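note to self: the first set is below, dont mix up w the second
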Amino acid sequence: MKIIENYCPKRIPLEEQNEVISVAVAVYNVAAYLDRAIISLINQTYQNLEIILVDDGSTDCCAEICDRYAAQDKRIKVIHKENGGLFTSRNVGIENATGTYLAFLDGDDWIEEDMYEKMLSAMREHGAELAVCRYKWVYADRTVDLSTGKAAVMEGQEMLAKYLEEDDAFQIQNAAWNKLYRRSLVGNLRFPKRLYEDMLYTIQLLNKLSKSIYLDRAYHNYVCDRNTSIMNMGINEKIFTDLIPNLYDRSAFLRQIKREDLALLQDYFMYKRILLFYTATSRSKNPYKKKYMKLLKDKLREPDKSSYAAIFSIPQANPREYQKLKIFLFSPQLYLLAMWLNDKIVVPIKTKRVKK
C-alpha cells in the first residue's frame, strides 16, 4: 500500500471527459430530499453522465419529480417499477447502465459537485479499477467530516483486508454509494435479495480487485437522521433474517477463496457485534426481547472453545473483548451485570479523571 499525503486529483477538461459514468439512483418515498440529490448529479463537474433514476414504486410524489428532471436533462432516464426493495433498485440500475464506470446514490443523500471528476481522475492516474472516498455524516444540527486529504493506492486484496479491519482511517464501509467502479469489475455480480445487501456484495467485489485507490476526502453527504432508513431500524427481526445471515455468508465466502486469515478477522468482528446486540437487546423495551436474547445467545454458543481461541488470537483482536465473551459463555447474567457496572460506574469515573 502506498500512502500519498495531501493528494488532490487533477481536473479533467471537458474534451477528456470521454468515458460515461452511469449513476444508479435508488428512489423510494424520499420526495423531501430528492431534488437535492438529483441537482447534485446534474451539477457535477464531470458532465458525461448517465443518470438512472430507479423509482421503486414510491407512493409519494417521487415519480413526478423523476419525470420532471428527465424532461429537462437528456442525461437522465427514469425507470418506474413495482416496490421490491433497495437491492432490486440497484440491480435494475446495473442492468440498465451503459457507461464505462458505475456509481450508486441513494435518493435522500447528495454529493459534492466534483466527486466523480476527482474519483475518476484518481483512477486514471493510478490505473485503478475502483475508487473509494470518505463521506460526511449529516445530522439535523451538525455535519461531521473527518477528512485528512490523504490517499492510499492499494494492490490486490489490500483494500479487502483494510475494509475487514474496520479501521476508521479508511472509511471504506459496506456502502455502495461512496465508490466509483469500473463497470467491467462489477461484471455479473449483483446485490443479494435481502436487506443489508451491500455487506456481502462489497466483500465479493473487493476480492476481484487488482488495484484500487482510497481518497480520504468527503465527497459524499450521508444523511443520518431519517428514522425510516434501514440504518436507523434498531434491534428488530431483520437483524436475524438479514444482517446476521450476511455476516455468516461473508465468513463462508472468505474461506471459499482460501483467505482463512481474513475469515478469522471477519469472525472476530461478527461475534463482537453479536455480543453488542445481546447487550443492547437486554436494555431495550422490545416486545420480543426474550426471543431475541435467546437467538443471540444461541449464536454466541455455536463455536467451540478452540474456534474462539483462534478467532481472538488474531493481531487485531482486543483481549478485553475475549474476556467479555468468556464471562458471557460462563454466565449471561454475570456478563450483563459486568456491563452495567462498567457503563454506570467504571466509564463515568474514567471520564471524570480525563476531564481533570
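second set (the one i keep forgetting abt)
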Amino acid sequence: MLYHLFTYLEEAYQFPGAGLFQYISFRAALSVITSLLISMVFGKRIIQWLQLKQVGEIVRDLGLEGQMKKQGTPTMGGIIILASIIIPTLLFTDLTNIYVQTMLVATVWLGLIGFIDDYIKVFKKNKAGLAGKFKIIGQVGVGIIVGSMLYFSDDVNIKQPTVESNQIEAVSDISTWETVKSTKTTIPFVKNNEFDYAWLLNWMGDGAKDYGWIVFILMVIVVVTAVSNGANMTDGLDGLATGTSAIIGVTLAILAYVSGNYIFADYLNIMFIPNSGELVVFIAAFVGACIGFLWYNAFPAQIFMGDTGSLALGGIIAVFAIAIRKELLIPVLCGIFLIENLSVVIQVGWFKITKRRFGEGRRVFLMAPLHHHYQKKNLPESKIVARFWIIGILLAVVTIVTLKVR
C-alpha cells in the first residue's frame, strides 16, 4: 500500500524521497526491519495472551532429556510469523505483481491449515489434530491454485536472448530478449541447465507442449506437499525450523534478485524472469519474521510456532522456489528438511520390513526424526540445533555456487 501511495506521489507531485520506493533494495530493507519489529515487539504480547488463554503445548513423554519441561509452553506462535510476513508485504510490495499475489495466497492458505490443526489440538484437546487426509487435501489444493496462477497468468513468463550467445554486446541489450511462455526450470550442476517439463510428454507428439501445464501443476503439488511437511517434521527442537528457514530465506532472496535482473541473469547465464525481483521484498519479510520469532523461540523456547507456522514456512519456501524456477535446487537448499523427512521414512519402512521378515521390528535410528536420534545420544538440544544450522549454511552456499558451477 505504501509502495502504491509513494509511487502516486512521485508521479503526480514529484514528492521528495518518494522515488526511493521504486528501489527493491530500499523496500526490502524496510520490509525486513518492519517484520523484525512486529515479531519482537508484538510477539511478547501475543505470548502473554496465549498464556492467558492457556494455549500450551501438550507434550507426549518420549523419554528425551528436558522434554517434559516444555509442557505448557505456549504454541500457535505461527500467528506471529504470519503477521510479520503479511503486514510488510502489504505495505511495501507492488500488490499488482502476480508473484506477490501467489505468495500471499500460499501463505494465508497453508497458515490457515496449520491454524485449524493447532486449534483442534489445543482447544479441542485432540492430540491427533487435523486428520492427515485433510492436510493433504489442503496442500494439494494450494498446489493446484498456485500452479494455475503461475502457468496461466499472462504476467508469468521468462525472457531469453534472440541472438547467438557469442554476440556479447547484443545479449547485454534487453531489447534483444524475447518474452516466452515456458514450463522450463533450472537443473543444478548441468551446463545447459534448463529442463522443460513438457519434455516428459514428448511421447504425445506435436501436441505435447499444450499439455505441459499438467506436469507443471503436478510438480507444484509434489514440491509444496513435500517441503511443507518437511518443515513441519523439522520443527521439533527450539529454534531448529525457524533458524533453518531463515538461512533458506536469505539464499532464496539472492536467487530471486539475480533472476529478476537481466544484467545478472545474462552474466550468470540463468533464466531472466521479469518482475520476479519484487519477490525479494516478500522474502525479506519472511527472513525478518523468522529471525524475530527466533528471539522468543531460541532455546529455551518461550513459544512454539506449531503447525500454524511450520506448514506455512515450508509452503512459502516451496512456492517461492517454484516461482523463480529453482525448485529442483530444493533437495540441496532444503537438505535439512529432506534429511528429517527421509529419517522418518527409513525408520518406519525398515521397521515394517524387519517385522514381516523376522517377526520383530528393528530400527535404523534411536528415534526419528533425526534430531531426536541425537537427543537420544545425549547431545544437548542447543548443540544439535547449532550444528544443523551450520549444515544449513553449508547447503545454502552450495546452492548459490550452482549458479556458476556446472
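remember for set 2: DSSP finds 15 helices and four strands in the chain.
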